[in-house]
Amino acid sequence: MDRISIVGGKQLSGSLAISGAKNAALPLMIASLLTSERLTLKNVPNLADVNTLARILRNHGVDLAVDGKRADPSPYLGETFHLTARDIVDTTAPYEMVSRMRASFWVLGPLLARCGVARVSMPGGCAIGTRPVDLHLMGLKALGAEIEIDGGYVVAKATKGLKGARVSFPKVSVGATHAVLMAAALAKGETVIENAAREPEIGDVAECLAKMGCKMEGIGTSTLRIQGAGRLEGAVHTVLPDRIETGTYAFAVAAAGGDVELRGARKSLLDTAFAALEQAGVTIAETEHGVRIARNGRGLQPIAIETQPYPGFPTDLQAQLMALMTRAEGTSVIRETIFENRFMHVQELARLGADIQLQGDTATVRGVKQLRGAQVMATDLRASVSLVIAGLMAEGKTTINRVYHLDRGFERLEQKLSGCGADIERLVSG
Ligand code: EPU
Q1: How far, in Å, are 61, 334, 368 from residue 328 at the CA level?
Q2: Among 55, 301, 334, 365, which is most exposed with the fewest C-beta within 10 angstroms?
Q3: Which tens digits make up the pLDDT trace of 81-104?
Q4: Terminal CA-CA length for the chain
Q5: Ligand 1 atom with minimal separation from the 339 CA
Q6: Cis bond leading into 311, ω under 30°?
Q7: Per-residue pLDDT tens for 264-276?
């Protein structure tokens, strides 16, 4: 297994390119199941999760072609995928595939809507919490699906097709909103989703569905009104920039100090996270090509924050914020309200000398004068990158083991950071 080695203490400068959003690219790829025509997605990031999903979609019968290199003047445009699900040849998503990546469970809604039947393995738990799928099933049942659990599989049927309905979620869920949104696009009649997740990635999928011929109101709000199209067409769509990658590099620059432009980043996607960084003493400015992050010499101020669904502070940046606050001049309080077990990074940060006390859903982080490099273990995607941020601040060498977690969601992380002056390298195994 590859490892990443970082020698801390180098300031960062220059610029790096932000990729397309993983959490938009995945559901957009899944949306290709909704039409027999070609869906072209531009700016798809080159990530392990994208490749895993491509394998799963091919298994359902999706033809996937990827454009070769282009003489494109834009350095931050990712790959172009052409996905065509002319015939769905298999409506089962097997355990071996779904267990590798939770988001692959999201094929359930589109398969059911298009074929009237789907059999998808339950995704099971994961490192950050139990992550049930009850809200997905509740939403699809409201649209008329009959659902049973058989041998670890969700077996869903809608022999007469899905029918539009009012779906009022008791809790905000990104995945359940995607599931109902995609299924509703092919259902008969109008669906209203209340208490929908407002994450920009949902908006990106909604805009793509609109291009595919689905009429929709309320994009970006918590009430989505969808007129089922019965049949959807092909479309061309560009994946929006990754706000979590943007936030992660912003925290990295804040941690290491320096001045870096994040090219292709969209500042408006990160209002809450950037407000927190500004409160900590970091300068953030919109530029012609993205966002500039700078911290020159000043100490970091502690902050108190809790994670919330969008537009609140994202759970996917909680670990990165915590890493940064380990060196603040005072005590920060970070409350995780989305996932019950998303603190796997705490014990690893402690190996570097961080002072963090955990009580229930709240971490109290007392800033220390210095972190010292050590061997640490990546546990999940965002926790892993928090160790990179801590490594950039630590004195001496930090080695991060099990970096395959990082490859699931960060494209060319070492190149992007070393291009800005970080002393970071990948140690390729064997
Ligand atoms: N929940 C339920 N029942 C459900 C679904 C969710 O109780 O049927 C709960 C979850 O257990 C959690 C909360 O609702 O406590 C929110 O979960 P949500 O469904 O919003 O999360 P998700 O769709 O499984 C997506 C992202 C995550 C991100 C969360 C929250 C993708 C592929 N995944 O997960 O991203 O943390 O939304 O914003 O979009 C990551 O990229 O590292 C990642 C984990």
Answers
A1: 52, 13, 7
A2: 55
A3: 999 999 999 999 999 989 888 999
A4: 8
A5: 15
A6: yes
A7: 999 999 999 999 9
